[in-house]
Amino acid sequence: MGMTIAEKILAAHSGHESVVAGQLIECETDWVLCHEITTPAALRMLEERGMDRVFDPSRIVAVPDHSVPAMNIKAAKMYQKLKSWVQEKGIQHFYDVGRGGIAHVVLENTGLIKPGQTLVSGDSHTCNAGALGCFATGVGSTDLAGAIYAGKVWFKVPETMLIRVTGEMQPGVTPKDLVLEVIRRIGADGANYLAMEWVGDTIDRMDMEGRFTLTNMAIEAGGKTGIVAVDDTTRAYLAQRGVTPDQYTEYTSDPDANYKVVIDLDASAVEPTVAYPHIPSNGRVAGSDRIAVTHAYVGSCTNGRIGDLRDVARILKGRKVADGVQMIVVPATQAIWKQAAQEGLLEIFVEAGASVSYPSCGACLGMHSGVLGPDDVCISSSNRNFVGRMGDPTAQIYLASPATVAASAVAGYISDPREYNAESAGGGTEAAD
């Protein structure tokens, strides 16, 4: 029996010629990604046990992003803990406030994480990096502590779900709509502990920004990771970041690889999709109901990239955000913020009546920079719409593409972006470094 991409990577990192789904392995990790929320807890575990060391300071990437700049004393202390550890241990890859942004988007642009490698982090959206043909997954603070100390993690080899997407996406339909449609079909637990492998001619034509959106939301279906095989698009993306093919290993799934389930999706039949409260699988066609919104949020590790901001600008240009709607746009990184400024996108946002914030996770997880109040209704380009996720538990969160968020902000209610001539298929072809 052949192996999937995920199985091949895990076999290579555990000293086995082959592995099978369900097998327990001790896996070497190439990279550990740390931020200021979950890392301090892992560090305390190590300190309390006299195990205060780092397996390799050149293979850890630290990016404060969740609650920065600090909005209160507690957040400031967490940031201080991460930064002092970075300085004490000589962590070589530190992207401080003002030099980084959202950890997952920062990392994808560094050229550090490469195809065929493994990555763990104390953050569930670490699966984002799987678009580069690597095995990337979130772990708890205890496993994070082990990875920091030993550079190894125990895994149960996941089964794989094959998602085959074919056909041309309609104008105004984006990769965010594709992944929301898949999650709608299979449910929020439909990929529990599975590797979600994306294939098909639609994926072949998709740029890297769109692929990152797909793999980023694997966790919203319960997935262990998302993954896309390396192709010319991946190679060109890496080359722009100074990474040459001799620096990484490409894996492809064998023709006789075993898949737990195969999902076929006709991209031409997918419409702009909105996930209604309070679960990402509660998807419906955008504009199905005239639901008034009080907040519109563009950002997060899912959809805060330059292509996303261009989609928003195309709709907002020459228009105004509706009265009574607070719109916040958060570029995912400093580099993206700068590029958006150079392209005039930030001016378009401000002229339309939107607020542009500094790069961070922002209001996505209800910590700061747009926290929702009682009974607020927010349409967001982020990844989760759980009760209380972005603030008050009575607030309602609707998930959608950046284009749908922009269209809804202008209309004052959830709207179909195709009514505003949204021409993009999502993601830019020229990403910020």
From TrEMBL:
Pathway: Amino-acid biosynthesis; L-leucine biosynthesis; L-leucine from 3-methyl-2-oxobutanoate: step 2/4. Keywords: 4Fe-4S, Amino-acid biosynthesis, Branched-chain amino acid biosynthesis, Iron, Iron-sulfur, Leucine biosynthesis, Lyase, Metal-binding. [4Fe-4S] cluster binds at C301, C361, C364. Coiled coil: none annotated. Signal peptide: none annotated. It is an enzyme of class 4 (lyase). GO terms for biological process: L-leucine biosynthetic process. Residues 7-282, 290-412 form the Aconitase/3-isopropylmalate dehydratase large subunit alpha/beta/alpha domain. Its cofactor is [4Fe-4S] cluster. PANTHER family: 3-ISOPROPYLMALATE DEHYDRATASE LARGE SUBUNIT 2, HOMOACONITASE, MITOCHONDRIAL-RELATED. HAMAP family: LeuC_type2. Heterodimer of LeuC and LeuD. Belongs to the aconitase/IPM isomerase family. LeuC type 2 subfamily. This is 3-isopropylmalate dehydratase large subunit.
